[in-house]
Amino acid sequence: xxxxxxxxxxxxxxxxxxxxxxxxxxxxxxxxxxxxxxxxxxxxxxxxxxxxxxxxxxxxxxxxxxxxxxxxxxxxxxxxxxxxxxxxxxxxxxxxxxxxxxxxxxxxxxxxxxxxxx
Length: 118
Hints:
By secondary structure, the chain is mainly α. It has one domain (4-17, 43-116). It is built from three helices and no strands. Helix 1 packs antiparallel against helix 3 (80-116). Mean pLDDT is 86; it is low at 4-8 and 18-22.
């Protein structure tokens, strides 16, 4: 099940990447993983999602570091458009990562609530 934040974050990142096109050698993270519904998902499914979320966050952090290095490598020759594209892409990646983390944390909270209700 895809959470609302995951879809929005993925769309933001995809839009930003299409705006900039080639980001040098920076490899953007893949599609954010699905987050199961914590109210009904078994613990094993949430544990698997946890690993996928951690991998996505790590890929995104690598991408952000690459964007920072790309901006530095352009130095004083960077155009206003290049800078704006890098900043837009960077911000979208951060938003996507944060939306996924927020969605996952919400589902963990829902899982714990249903356990407390048993």
